[in-house]
Design a protein that fits this description.
The structure holds two protein chains of two kinds.
Chain A (H helix, E strand, L loop, with lengths): L1 H41 L6 E4 L2 E4 L9 H10 L9 E6 L12 E8 L3 E10 L13 E3 L10 E7 L6 E4 L6 E10 L8 H5 L5 E7 L1
Parallel strand pairs in A: 7-8
Antiparallel strand pairs in A: 1-2, 3-9, 4-7, 4-10, 5-6, 5-9
Chain B lengths: L4 H15 L4 H25 L4 H5 L8 E3 L17 E9 L5 E7 L5 E5 L5 E6 L6 E7 L30 E9 L6 H9 L2 E4 L4
Antiparallel strand pairs in B: 1-2, 2-7, 3-6, 3-8, 4-5, 4-7
Classes of the chains: A alpha+beta, B alpha+beta.
Chain lengths: 210, 204
């Protein structure tokens, strides 16, 4: 009787081991396959995105010949984007030191007049929603931003009013900045990718946090 | 030393993993399976990732009619990342039954026109020039190969439309973007947006 029980136990252990081997195999495949796909759709890599300081853009955004990662990224975000043939849309969710943008901090976005026919900078929350504020200020464009005599500009991102180009952040929590360059001299399309990588974009400096 | 039951279990799993002999066939099979799953998930993502921009805008845009959107605010923002730096006029076109005629002007820099397919591809785009009004007339033809009437030339009418652009979709959204330069320019901007027409043409 003991011998039969022992054999049955051994058999059961062997089956459990086999099942656990397969479970590990399937688990690794699921984590590796789905995880790598999710990462590529969210963050992209050097083939699909271009990073300039804290700013990043998808190289084939809105294009008919866009790669599957870009296509899936924008299907997921539900946005309507201009083709990179005429515009580049950059986003920043961290400052120039790599720290997450947050409405509890104050930031200075500064740079020289951008090399584009027309440009804009907009403050949004991390879901791409505009931040409600009593001043109804959400964006600055090359037409509306106050530029210094030396050709530079500074936009202040802060909860409370600031002199100059102030964009209110309210209590939005995590922030995202969107910058559109229309007909920039550094369009990403085609064989001009190397030129696009040389573009100088504004820096985002954390001034203070509460 | 006694370990926490959870730590003991984790240790047992780690020991089990360490005991696995690296079977190269199994590793290769796992890598292949990961690759297949990665490709399948990436290709299926656009179909499985909820509502696209077209799906979100479709209910608010009557077919072949121009709608000038109010200035984008937190209360009126129809899509994420649709920024208020520009004013928008949109037309949801459907050329399955008849060609769609589009006419508009791009009166200066910052103005742009874009044709988006339901998949989000920007199949045609044009931008305004400095100090120059660019007039655009487009004709979106059905992709199905069927007789849609005589061409304007064969009817003895001068065809002023631009050279035909091959658009791979019978449906889509045409977006006219006008830079919002501030309150003083609003009447000028809105007049420009209202000159945008988009309508199904009669087949003769």
């Amino acid at each position: 009787m003991h011998f039969v029980l022992h054999r049955a136990r051994k058999k059961l252990q062997a089956i459990i081991l086999k099942i656990s081997d397969w479970a590990i195999f399937v688990g690794l495949v699921l984590i590796g396959g789905l995880g790598s796909s999710y990462y590529m759709l969210s963050a992209g890599n050097a083939l699909t995105t271009l990073n300039v300081g804290p700013w990043s853009t998808w190289k084939h955004e809105g294009r008919v010949d866009a790669d599957p990662y870009t296509r899936a990224h924008f299907a997921r975000s539900g946005t309507l984007n201009l083709t990179t043939d005429i515009a580049n849309t950059y986003q920043a969710s961290s400052d120039s030191d790599g720290l997450r943008l947050h409405s509890s901090c104050e930031y200075e976005i500064s740079g020289e007049t951008l090399d584009a026919r027309w440009w804009s900078i907009t403050a949004l929350d991390d879901q791409g929603r505009l931040i409600d504020n009593p001043s109804n200020r959400y964006t600055f464009t090359s037409d509306t931003v106050a530029i210094s005599p030396d050709g530079t500009f500074t936009v202040t991102l802060a909860r409370d009013a600031r002199p100059g180009n102030w964009l209110p952040t309210g209590g939005a929590g995590r922030l995202t900045l969107a910058m559109t360059l229309l007909e920039s001299n550094a369009v990403i399309a085609g064989d001009r990718e190397a030129e696009a990588e040389m573009i100088v974009l504004p820096t985002i400096k954390r001034v203070a946090c509460r | 030393m006694t370990l926490h039951p959870l730590a003991e279990r984790a240790l047992a799993v780690l020991k089990r993993l360490a005991a696995l002999r690296p079977d190269l066939r199994l590793v290769a099979a796992a890598l292949c399976a990961m690759g297949i799953l990665h490709i399948a998930a990436t290709l299926a993502a656009p179909m499985m990732m909820g509502r696209s921009a077209f799906d979100r805008l479709e209910p608010m845009l009557p077919v072949n009619t121009v709608i000038v959107l109010p200035p984008v605010t937190p209360a009126t923002q129809p899509l994420p990342f649709l920024t208020p730096d520009v004013r928008y006029a949109m037309c949801r076109y459907d050329s399955a039954q008849a060609p769609v005629g589009v006419s508009l002007e791009l009166p200066g820099k910052g103005w742009s026109l874009a044709l988006h397919t339901p998949e989000g591809d920007n199949v045609y785009a044009a931008t305004g020039e400095d100090e120059r009004v660019t007039s655009l007339r487009l004709r979106i033809l059905p992709t199905a190969e069927r007789f849609m009437g005589l061409t304007p030339e064969s009817l003895g009418v001068a065809d002023t439309t631009e050279k035909p652009q091959a658009v791979r979709s019978d449906r889509g959204i045409i977006v006219l973007r006008a830079p919002d330069k501030g309150r003083a320019y609003r009447p000028f901007i809105e007049a420009g947006l209202r000159r945008f027409t988009c309508a199904a043409e009669k087949v003769r």
